[in-house]
Amino acid sequence: MTWSQADGRLQYRPLASRALPEAKEAAPLTEGAGGDPEAPLLDPLDHDTVDWRATGLCFLFPALGGLLFGYDIGATSGVLTSLTNPQLSGTDWSNLSAFQSGLVVSTSLLGALAGSLVALAAGNRLGRRTEILLAALLYGVSSASLGAADSLNWLLACRLGYGLGIGLAMHAAPAYIAETSPPTVRGLLISLKEAAIVGGILLGYFTGYVFADDVGGWRSMYACAAPLALALGLGMASLPESPRWLLLSGAGRDAAAAALARAEGARAADPRVVQAELDAMVTGAAADGGGGGGSQGGAKLLALFGEARYRRPLLIGSSLMLFQQITGQPSVLYYANQIFEKAGFSSGQEAAEVSVVLGAFKLLMTIVAVATVDKLGRRPLLLAGVSGMVVALLALGLAQGSGGGGGGAVAGVSVVALLLYVGCYQVSFGPISWLIVGEVFPLAVRSQAIALAAVMNYASNFGVSLALPTVQEAVGLPATYLGFAGVGVVALLSIYLTVPETKGKTLEEIEAMWSSGGTTAAAAIAAPKARDEGGSQ
Fold first, then answer.
1. What's this model's pTM, rounded to 2 decimal places?
2. Which residues does the UniProt record annotate as the domain Major facilitator superfamily (MFS) profile (predicted)?
C-alpha cells in the first residue's frame, strides 16, 4: 500500500489498484475536476481518495463495540482469580466449583448467542446503527450493575445482559464497517476491528493487573466498561445508517445517497463517485430482490438454506466461526491467569503480569495481520496461521504432560507455546474469519447470514468455555491441548478445500462468485495453488 497527500486529504492506494472491469466499461469518462475541460479525464470508479476523518469515524465507534467484547474477555481472566480468592473476593460465595467458574465465563457467551438469534430474526428490521445503539445500552447497564452484584445469581444475570450486547454489536459492526468503507480500505478496516477487540483484551488484562490485589477488585474490573459503553452510544448516535442497508430496506436512493455522503465525506464531494457507487449498490440490491429488508427476514433465512448460490458462503462463514472457537481460543483467553499459575507463576499478580504481556503480543500480531491482509491475502494467512496454532498446541500438550510439575522449564515452554499460539491465531482466525464473514455473503441475506455465523461462533465459544474447566479436571491439560491440535488439523483441511481468495474484490464482485455456480470461487482457490506451484519450480 502507498500513501500520498493531495488537496489536503490523505489518499490510500493499494499496491495493485484494481477497478471494476464491467462497471468501468459502462462508466463514462467525464470532463476534468471542477468542470475544467482541460483537466485530466476522471473515471469516478478510479477515484481512490479516502477521507479518513469521515471513514475513520464510521470505523471507530463500531470498533468500540468490539473493544468492549474484548475487554470482557481480558477482564474475566482477572475476575476469576479475584472472585475465587477467599482473601480478595470480598464475598461469602468465593468457593466456586469448576462448573460455577465456567458459568461466570460462559454466561456472557450465552447472552451473545441469544443476541445473535435476535439479530438473526430482526437484524434487517433494526438496521446496523440501531443494533449497535442497543448494544451500547446493554453494555452500559450491565457493566455498571456487575460492579454492584451481591450474589452469584445477580452476577450471572448481569453477565447475560452484557452478552446480549456482545451478540448485537458483533453482528452489526462487521456489516456496518463493510458497508460504509470504500473498497480499497475495506479489508484494512474490518481487520482493524479485530485489533480493537484485541486492544480490549489487553485493556482487560491490564485492568485485572491493576486491581489484582484489591479486595473486591473484580467489581472494578467489570465496572470500568461503563464509560466506554457511554462513548459507544454517543458516537453511534452521531453516525449515519449504512447506505446499503437503506437501499435494501426500501428507504430509497436519496436516503442512501445522503448516508453515503456522510460516511465517505470529502470522497463523496464528487457526485460522480456517489452515483457510481449507488449504481453498483442498486444493481446488487435489485439482483438480490430489492427492498423489504425489514419484513422478509424469515423468507431470506429460508432462502439462505434453500438456494444453491448461498450454500458455499454459508459453509465458509459457519465453518470459520466454528473452528475459530473449537481450536482452543477460549482456553487461552478466559483462563490465561489460571493457566499461568498452573505453569509455575506462583501468585495471581505474577500471572496477571504475564497475561498483560500475552495481550500486548496479541495486539502486536494483530497489527501485523492488518498490515499484510490486503497484500498477502486472506487464504495464505489462514493456512499459515492455523498451521502454527497446531504446532503450538502440540507443544503445550507435550510440555504439560512431561511430568515436570511447575518447574521452570515447563513454565518457559508454556509461555513460548502460548505466545506462538496467540501470534498465529491473530494472523489467521482472529481477524480473517470476521473479515471473510463480512465479505462473502450476498447483500440480500447478509444480515441473516452474519447473524447465523455469529450464532455458530458464540454457541461453540459458550460450549467450550462452559465445559473446559470440567474437561480439564477429567482428562487433564495435556489431553485437552492435544485434542485441540487434532481439531486444528481438520480446520486446516477445511480451509484448504473451501475458502477462496477475496483480496481486492468489491462486495458485488464477491457476490458474483456465488451466482456463477461456484466456478469463480473454485478458480479463486485454484489460482493461489497454481502460483505456489509455479513459484517452486
1. 0.71
2. 58-503
CA gap 253, 257 in Å, rounded? 6
pLDDT digits (tens, 9 = 90+) for 88-139: 899 999 898 888 988 898 899 899 989 988 887 887 788 899 999 999 999 9
Give the residue from 310, 290, 342, 345 showing the smallest Cα distance to 481: 342
> Which residue is associated with the grid cell 489484582?
212
The C-alpha atoms of residue 28 and residue 176 are separated, in whole angstroms, by: 30
Strand blocks (E) in 361-484: none
Q: How far apart are CA 374 and CA 368, in angstroms?
A: 11
CA distances from 286 to 63, 243, 249, 273 (A): 30, 15, 12, 20
Question: What's the fold here for domain 50-239?
Answer: Growth Hormone; Chain: A; (1.20.1250)
Query: pLDDT tens for residues 130-149?
Result: 999 999 999 999 999 999 99
Q: Exposed, middle or buried by CB within 10 Å (0-12, 13-18, 19+), for 26?
A: exposed
- For the segment 63-87, the average pLDDT, to the nearest whole number, is 91
252: left (phi over 0), alpha (psi -120 to 50) or beta: left
